[in-house]
Write a structure and sequence with these properties.
Blueprint: E1 4-9, H1 16-32, E2 36-41, H2 47-54, E3 59-63, H3 80-85, E4 90-93, H4 96-101, H5 106-118, E5 122-127, H6 131-135, H7 139-154, E6 163-166, H8 180-195, H9 199-204, E7 206-210, H10 215-222, E8 229-232, H11 239-250
Parallel strand pairs: 1-2, 1-8, 2-3, 3-4, 4-5, 5-6, 6-7, 7-8
Helix pairs in contact: 1-2, 1-11, 5-7, 7-8, 10-11
The structure holds phosphoenolpyruvate (PEP).
Phosphoenolpyruvate is lined by residues 9, 167, 172-173, 210-213, 231-235.
Function: Involved in the gluconeogenesis. Catalyzes stereospecifically the conversion of dihydroxyacetone phosphate (DHAP) to D-glyceraldehyde-3-phosphate (G3P).
Active site: 95 (electrophile), 167 (proton acceptor)
InterPro entries: Aldolase_TIM, TIM_sf, TrioseP_Isoase_bac/euk, Triosephosphate_isomerase, Triosephosphate_isomerase_AS
Length: 251
């Protein structure tokens, strides 16, 4: 039985004060729903603060990005082992903003996924199609290609220790949530595709939906059989909205 996981992606947002208010505000909501795993991905500069603020709570946390290298002349980067040392459980990898704004290819994403696992973290592999690809009806083949790059490099068994996040690019930050039916169909396809390599791994892996999830849409989305929770951007920055989303995952 897969647990629901709700993960906030704070992106490049927050101040020391807002981070404190957000974690303090979310702690009771997370505690009120023991069946739901809750995690946040703050900007890396706030990891030490989040480590302190989440002590004793069930809120896990992760990074939004990690480098493939462990050390060296890579200005501005953070190694997975450094993130682990600050208590991270997860790291996002392959978010569409990194694929687009930082030119991260499927090969780069696969290398980062491998480095994140080697560093002792759980990669949250973000995949999804653009609006043009959605309109062209190529969603399934797009997500297959994105998954295959990781399977080729790391093997299907690596998904025993990974999370997949299906995030249609046209739904991220646009207010256009995929309908539960559309999202469920893609999630089922992702699981079926993984099952072609290993049915037991596919049955166990958590597949999150991301793209303009709100308190109003969470319960219907997470009620679908192959949607195991959500990766949430904008709404994860507001205590009330994210608390409602956590509650939606408990239903
Ligand atoms: C995201 O960036 O992962 C995301 C899902 O953002 P939003 O919820 O704001 O669409």
């Amino acid at each position: 039985m897969r647990q629901h996981l709700v993960m906030g992606n704070w992106k490049l947002n927050g101040t020391k004060a807002s981070v404190e208010a957000l974690i303090k505000g979310l702690t009771p909501a997370a505690a009120a729903h023991p069946s739901v795993q809750v995690a946040v991905c703050p900007p890396v500069i706030f990891l030490g603060l989040v480590e302190q603020l989440t002590a004793g709570s069930k809120i896990a946390y992760g990074a939004q990005n990690a480098d493939v290298h462990e050390s060296g002349a890579f200005t501005g980067e953070n190694a997975p082992s450094m993130l682990k040392a600050f208590g991270c459980t997860y790291s996002l990898v392959g978010h569409s903003e990194r694929r687009t704004l930082h030119a991260e290819t499927d090969d780069v994403v696969a290398a980062k996924y491998e480095a994140i696992q080697k560093g002792g973290l759980i990669p949250v592999l973000c995949i999804g199609e653009t609006l043009a690809q959605f309109e062209a009806g190529t969603t399934n083949s797009v997500v297959e290609t994105q998954l295959k790059a990781v399977i080729d490099r790391c093997g299907i068994a690596s998904f025993e220790n990974a999370v997949v996040a299906y995030e249609p690019v046209w739904a991220i930050g646009t207010g256009k949530t995929a309908t539960p039916e559309i999202a469920q169909a893609v999630h089922a396809h992702i699981r079926q595709y993984l099952a072609g390599f290993d049915a037991a791994v596919a049955a166990k892996v958590q597949i999150l939906y991301g793209g303009s999830v709100t308190g109003a849409t969470a319960a219907d989305l997470f009620g679908q059989p192959d949607i195991d929770g959500g990766l949430v951007g904008g709404a994860s920055l507001k205590v009330d909205d994210f608390s409602q989303i956590i509650a939606g995952a408990a239903k």
